[in-house]
Amino acid sequence: MVKNFYIFRHGQSSYNLEGKIQGHTNNSVLTDRGIDQAYATADNLKNKNVEVIISSPLRRAKQTGNIVSKVIKAPLQFDERFTEVNVGIAEGLYYTQAMEKFGDLYKKWRSAKLADEDIHFEEGESKRQVRQRVFSALQQYAQSKYNNIAISGHGITLTETLHALNIDKEEVDNGEIIHLQYDNDNWHYIGSIK
Predict the structure, then answer these.
(1) What is the pTM of this model?
(2) Would the CA dihedral through 5, 86, 168, 12 be positive or negative?
(3) Which of 7, 78, 165, 182 is most buried, by CB atoms within 10 Å?
């Protein structure tokens, strides 16, 4: 049976607006624009027969998931495997500070090149590790009773999910939905919904 996954990035957060690296930081919350984006995401999911929403437990994703859950009337659950990449000692820095402080390491970490998939900041995780934990969760939900699942997640977890499927996308916008299908142990990228 074909299963549909609608994985969306949280709405604009305070850290997005300020140009800060978020990672596991949990004090970043939705801005007014982010709230509007969450409602737009909900509108885009209204006719998708979503049975459950799984969210990262970080506040910005949780807030977005809550809005979508209320609008489309689907239950909300949490799963730490959809948490954003842990950027270790770079968390909370402005992008400009990270560039000054880490230079080439920061450039490689931002890179989508396969050769850089094991790059990470001290106390942080690599993109390969992100893909492994996200796909561990996706595989589990693909075997669940649900056929149409929405996931409230983060920018890098989303781009790394796509990179694992050989889809070269540098960035997923706030509120953007990535539609994946699972069929006979195969994952397919259907497209993006904005």
Answers:
(1) 0.95
(2) positive
(3) 7
Q: Domain residue spans in the chain?
A: 3-193
Residues ≥6 apart with Cβ < 8 Å to 77: 52, 53, 54, 55
**Catalytic site positions:** 10, 84
Gap between the Cα atoms of 118 and 180, Å rounded: 25
pLDDT at residue 168 in the model: 82
182: helix, strand or coil: strand
Whole-angstrom Cα distance, residue 170 to residue 2?
27
How do 177-183 and 186-193 pair as beta strands? Answer: antiparallel
Token pair in block for residue 131: 């893909």
The DSSP code sequence of 101-117 is HHTHHHHHHH---GGGT
> CA Rg, the chain, in Å?
16
Indicate the CATH number for domain 3-193.
Answer: 3.40.50.1240
178 contacts 157 by C-beta, under 8 angstroms: no
Q: How far apart are CA 45 and CA 188, in angstroms?
A: 19
How deeply is 186 buried, as exposed, middle or buried, from its count of CB atoms within 10 A (0-12, 13-18, 19+)?
exposed
Q: Are 3 and 142 in contact (CB under 8 A)?
A: yes
What are the tokens at 33? 């624009």
**Could you report how far apart the first and last alpha carbons of the chain are, in Å?**
26
Q: What is the pLDDT of residues 99-136, one digit of tens each?
A: 999 988 988 888 777 788 899 999 999 999 999 999 99
